[in-house]
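Field reference: sequence -> structure
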Amino acid sequence: MEKKQNDFLVEVKDLKMHFPVKTGWFSSKPLKAVDGVSFEIKPGETLGLVGESGCGKTTVGRALLRLYKPTSGEFRFNGELVNDQSIRHLRKEMQMVFQDPYSSLNPRMTVEDIIGEPLDVHKLYTTRADRREKILSLMETVGLNAEHATRYAHEFSGGQRQRIGIARALAVDPKFIVCDEAVSALDVSIQAQVINMFEELQEKLGVAYLFIAHDLSIVKYISDKVGVMYSGKLVEFAKSADLYKNPLHPYSQALISAIPSTDIDSPMSARRIHIHGEISSAINPPQGCRFYKRCPKAFEKCKSIPPELIETEEGHFTACHLINPLL
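Structure field:
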């Protein structure tokens, strides 16, 4: 088994996820949902992945966990190459918390059976008493009571259902969790509770997160680093504080300008950047920058030459000809 040692828990290199779309009776074209994404995550670190709906965020998370088989690219977990063979023993090291707590839980199973299912699959207990003890411990960890164990998912609120999903993900003691819009379906007050719980679990267990969201204020709060996606590509990648303080890509600037702010002295609160036009087609993407048709700062080079994601400042990567005029 190919394995190498380094400082990163998760390493993604040039990940591509293309879906065939029929264009005729005997012809098809690839829909490029993810088209060359690369990033790394250290143990105990949170990477936020943001962008508008349809940009490929969720597809990245599902491809990493092999829920979709990637078209191409390389993904290493703790130095080990992840493929169809290695995912069998790595599956319990990587888990996912899904967006919709209403549809991601089996309505015919009790909470005890939902949380205990991963324990059954991976045979992580010796006796039935040991199984129940582990389940009750997980429930306590996410703020659920032992009396909830015999209830069904429909008897709980949205926040409680998401806690059940988190307990299920934690059952196999993973090192990495993909949180796919894990709080977007919840009320604002419940969102804060779940976000705080994610942070407490990270501090206690040392788990790393890929936190996929479109709410930039939440991502700013929870993430160590942030990647901004547009039409299947990363257009900016930086430490969270650096990105929010000094966004370099025009798309990132527009996203951050849309965050509601009570700080009237903030330079980004002084003006709202409006983006006009339609998102570029994932089936027939433009030859150059995928954002150029909507970019207020685009020039001729943007139409024909795709910008590369390069380090423009220390730890700050940007894919824009305005920032990298010589490329």
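Note: The mean pLDDT is 89.
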